[in-house]
């Protein structure tokens, strides 16, 4: 297998500089020459020198590819959390020392050391990882708590036969699980998340993870290991951490479509899926308007990239002329001036009891707009009009949808056509909903060089067969 290493190359040779090379002597020539007869060599310009190399690209450069296994060795960074008296320090390696919290990805190793300042009287030292999902329905009286993960490791136990002192530093290595079970189903381990819905009814939902270290120091405890039961005399340090499993699309965003006058709209290609609907007229003499929304076939997008789309309308010339009043307007306008909008919506649902009342589920949900589309005019004809655009996702969105027990988030693209006055408008309103999935990272041909926490990728948390009509899975790397 051939491994390649991308190296940043910087050359300071001016593109207009010409270097004169001396003529080469014939190979068979053997006539001796004096120093005075030697050809002259011009001094090279001062700006020409050996090219320099850097491990990371500069501001004006970019990386084409990178094999992660061949990255230069960098000094390890640590996230440190101490007790108030400084007696116990929890050091987590492989973290950004400037970050407010540690961050881990799919199946990550939580590695580090437990440092103890004064070891006299300590009988055992242990470390643990814990994750919890807490759901509470406000006014409905329901609550549920799920243990997402609980991994413990005893680092040292006092041997009374040898009476050896506790080491001042103990290493540990714990692995985050990839899944969890609520007793009924098994789900991928959900990311750190928090959501709430104010009012009645309402809900609060939290997914939290933490890593803790305990130095047990009982006064008069006879047993060898008292573990974490004796908090009064223990030295304990705990830090929450963020669990952000990384995902990415398995294919790139396809090439944009172009409006084709001969076809009366956009071309149909396998890389783009068409979602069709109809705007119903509100009065006689007006024909239906056919609506076609083109989206990338996978419907899997990176949260840091705009979502492209194409939208076309088809009807008679008379009906399209009447439809102009509510048709898209190029650019980003305030909602009051845009009667056709395409938005990215996130639905967060909490279902504590998992019950049915009169055939209706008792879950509670909220819906938030997390992205807004901007339109560009693409072309038109006697019986059609076409627009293209991008949906820009809010900077606060960092993870995609997931499902964990009675808590889930799902993302949808929603196309709305809302006439300003339904009584006077020649058309009724339209609402088209298309489920999609968001990934944390963009598509990458070889999947390397993304850096960050763990460098591992996870499969989708929502079944693609249920939500996305067997759309391709998110690419993952173990």
CATH topology of the largest domain: Immunoglobulin-like
Relative strand content: 35-45%
CATH class label of the largest domain: Mainly Beta
Give the mean pLDDT: 78
Architecture of the largest domain, CATH level 2?
Answer: Sandwich
Give the overall shape.
elongated
Total domain modules: 3
Poorly predicted tracts of residues:
1-35, 68-75, 220-233, 448-478
Rg, rounded, reads 32 Å
Q: Which range best describes the helical content: under 10%, 10-25%, 25-40%, 40-55%, 55-70% or over 70%? A: under 10%
Distance between the termini: 19 Å
Number of helical regions = 2
Number of strands: 28
Structural overview:
The protein has 3 domains: 42 residues, no CATH class; 166 residues, Immunoglobulin-like, CATH 2.60.40.840; 201 residues, Immunoglobulin-like, CATH 2.60.40.640. Helices cover 2% and strands 41% of the residues. It has 2 helices and 28 strands. The strands form 7 sheets. Strands 17, 18, 19, 20, 21, 24, 25, 26, 27 and 28 form a 10-stranded mixed beta sheet that branches. Strands 5, 7, 8, 12, 13 and 14 form a 6-stranded mixed beta sheet that branches. Strands 3-4-6-9 form a 4-stranded antiparallel beta sheet, with no helix packed on it.
């Amino acid at each position: 297998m051939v491994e390649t290493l991308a190296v940043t190359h910087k050359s300071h040779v001016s593109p207009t500089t010409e270097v004169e090379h001396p003529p080469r002597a014939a190979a068979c020539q053997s006539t001796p020459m004096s120093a005075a007869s030697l050809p002259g060599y011009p001094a090279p310009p001062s700006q020409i020198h050996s090219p320099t190399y850097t491990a990371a690209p500069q501001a004006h450069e970019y990386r084409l590819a990178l094999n992660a296994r061949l990255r230069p060795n960098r000094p390890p960074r640590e996230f440190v959390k101490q007790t108030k008296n400084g007696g116990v320090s929890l050091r987590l390696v492989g973290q950004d020392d400037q970050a407010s919290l540690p961050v881990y990805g799919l199946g990550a190793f939580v590695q580090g050391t437990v440092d103890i300042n004064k070891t006299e009287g300590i009988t055992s030292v242990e470390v643990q990882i814990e994750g919890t999902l807490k759901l509470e329905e406000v006014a409905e009286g329901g609550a549920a708590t799920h243990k997402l993960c609980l991994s413990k490791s005893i680092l040292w136990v006092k041997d009374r036969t040898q009476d050896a002192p506790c080491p001042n530093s103990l290493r540990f290595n714990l692995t985050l699980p990839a899944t969890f079970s609520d007793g009924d189903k098994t789900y991928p381990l959900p990311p750190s998340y928090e959501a709430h819905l104010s009012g009645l009814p309402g809900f609060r939902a939290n997914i939290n993870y933490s890593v803790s270290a305990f130095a047990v120091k009982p006064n008069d405890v006879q047993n060898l290991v008292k573990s974490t039961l004796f908090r009064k005399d223990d030295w304990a340090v705990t830090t929450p951490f963020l669990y952000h499993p990384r995902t990415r699309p398995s294919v790139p965003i396809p090439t944009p479509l172009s409006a084709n006058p001969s076809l009366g709209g956009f071309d149909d290609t396998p890389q783009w899926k068409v979602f069709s609907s109809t705007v119903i007229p509100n009065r006689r003499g007006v024909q239906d308007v056919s609506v076609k929304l083109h989206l990338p076939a996978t419907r899997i997008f990176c949260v840091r990239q705009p979502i492209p789309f194409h939208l076309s309308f088809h009807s008679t010339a008379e009906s399209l002329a009447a439809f102009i009043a509510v048709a898209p307007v190029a650019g980003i306008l305030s909602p009051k001036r845009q009667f056709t909008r395409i938005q990215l919506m996130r639905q967060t649902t909490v279902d504590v009891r998992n019950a049915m009342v009169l055939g209706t589920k008792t879950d509670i949900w909220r819906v938030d707009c997390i992205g807004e589309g901007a339109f560009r005019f693409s072309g038109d004809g006697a019986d059609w009009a076409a627009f293209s655009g991008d949906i820009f996702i809010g900077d606060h969105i960092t993870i995609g949808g997931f499902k964990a027990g009675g808590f889930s988030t799902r993302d949808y693209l929603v196309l709305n056509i809302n006439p300003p006055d339904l009584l006077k408008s020649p058309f009724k309103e339209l609402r088209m909903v298309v489920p999609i999935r968001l990934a944390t990272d963009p598509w990458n041909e070889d999947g390397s060089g993304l850096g960050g926490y763990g460098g591992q990728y996870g499969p989708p948390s929502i079944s693609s067969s249920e939500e996305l009509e067997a759309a391709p899975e998110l690419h993952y790397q173990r």
